[in-house]
Amino acid sequence: MEGRGPPFRAVQGNLPSELDEAELIDRAKAGDAGAFGELVRRYQPLASHVARLVAPGADVEDSVQEAFLKAYRALPRFRTGAPFRPWLCRIVANEAKNRARSAGRREGLALKMVDDRTEEAPSPDATVLARDEAHVLIDAMNRLREDDRLVIAYRWLLDLSESEMAVALGIKPGTVKSRLSRAMARLRTELLQDAEGDGAA
Fold first, then answer.
1. How many CA atoms, within 13 angstroms, populate the side-chain half-sphere of residue 152?
2. What's the mean pLDDT in 105-127?
């Protein structure tokens, strides 16, 4: 990314803070780089979360920067009125996957479940996940397939709706529930095996 810095840099005080997402997107599509810079500012934590799920560690920052560049270039094709968040999640996840694949690495999952949350008030599920045994959950999730980790994280850690998850995962809306259910079943199996192992120790 060196030498070709991002074409969007939010100018402090240049945009009213009360602009909603749809208006920012319209402005960005019309060529207002400051509007896209504001979208970047708002969605940076979410993008970092998604990239960390797929390619933790040193790849996260580069994945996020490149994903925002790709989103900026693809913005003219973004359908007016469509949800922006899952569209961006999909771009970030694809970029992170490509980088992990090209590097030939499959690093462990590193989730910061409370400090990095994008919502001010955590859901009850996230609160439960953040208790003392959170490391047990993270270890169990590390052993899941990437697709399972993503569907669980999109639902319970990032609070995406089912329709948003469908867009982010690139699947039919009717498939979301069954995929989430299967992923949760596999996670429960991993947690049960951990509990049995602890009991036998």
1. 27
2. 46
